[in-house]
Design goal:
single chain; 296 residues; N-utilizing Substance Protein B Homolog, Chain A; Nucleoside Triphosphate Pyrophosphohydrolase; 11 helices; 21% strand
């Protein structure tokens, strides 16, 4: 069982108990602690379970509206507690989470439903989440198109712009790249918003300094662009363009930012190891381009 799948399982079990006990927020931390102790005592998920549960609880009203709308034949209180909370996690990841690919959110929910739900739970969860996915073109277009615009961009918020870097360094034992461990528990490349008045170079140097502690940097060629959809529960979804650059590091000591809630670690990886570690399809695409540029 993958770490993420186990984390979602623990989150579902915790939400089940919370829901069964009348949604008492004071109980949730003890419930999570007890489930880790009982089911995964040596598992460290870097806060993913708690983040997932908090996301569901914070957006519960909107999440339940989605379930009510798309589970048309079942009143919310007549859906089993197991299926209801599997759906809540699935809707949260599908609609409100920025970096979880829609099909991953759906497939994970289906697998948990097959394991913990009834005979028809997998089909039921698939039907509800699949209907939401089909009814929201911006989900299908996460990652963008050649034009960089989704078909409903007029219904979305103002486009955001960020900059990121594939940071590499020549060590005595070979080339390595620097990755960060983000708030979702996945290894990826450092990136951040371009602030007003900043050009891409200034923004990138600031961001890499803040997230990785690197100061001596040589900004190289542009690798390409990543198109994302940012989902904030308090506003409309926003398209985001991330400009990615090659960056050669002079200093070698990584000092990841602490207590930001967005990342928890930074490490140097050999090329082959990094390729196996990167947690997002889009990061893999950027890496394949970057690797060719570094080695040419």
């Amino acid at each position: 069982m993958s770490n993420r799948h186990l984390a979602r399982t623990i989150a579902m079990q915790s939400l089940f108990m919370w829901d069964f006990n009348g949604k008492k927020e004071a109980d949730i931390k003890e419930i999570i602690k007890g489930n880790f102790s009982n089911f995964a005592p040596s598992f460290n998920d870097n806060g993913f379970v708690e983040k997932l549960i908090k996301g569901v609880m914070k957006n519960l009203s909107e999440i339940d509206k989605h379930i009510i709308k798309y589970a048309t034949e079942w009143p919310l209180d007549q859906i089993t507690i197991t299926d209801r909370n599997i759906l809540r996690i699935g809707v949260y990841e599908l609609v409100f989470s920025e970096d979880i690919p829609p099909k991953v959110a759906i497939n994970e929910a289906i697998e948990i439903a097959k394991t913990f739900g009834g005979e028809s739970s997998g089909k039921f969860v698939n039907g509800v989440l699949g209907a939401i996915y089909k009814d929201r073109p911006e989900l299908e277009k996460t990652g963008g198109s050649q034009s960089g615009k989704s078909p409903k961009e007029g219904l979305m918020g103002e486009r955001q712009f960020s900059v990121g870097g594939v940071v590499y360094r020549r060590f005595p034992d070979g080339l390595k790249i620097a990755l960060i461990l983000d708030g979702h528990g996945r290894w990826t490349f450092s990136k951040g918003k371009i602030k007003p008045g900043e050009d891409y170079k200034k923004a990138l140097i600031r961001e890499l300094g803040e997230e990785m502690g690197l100061k001596e940097l040589k900004i190289g060629e542009k690798i390409g662009e990543i198109e994302l959809i940012v989902r904030d529960p308090d506003s409309k979804p926003c398209p985001k363009t991330v400009y990615m650059y090659l960056v050669e590091a002079v200093d070698d000591k990584l000092s990841p930012a602490q207590n930001t809630g967005e990342l928890s670690d930074a490490k140097w990886y050999d090329f082959d190891e990094a390729e196996k570690t990167l947690g997002y399809d889009k990061s893999q695409e950027v890496w394949q381009k970057a690797k060719k540029m570094i080695l040419k």
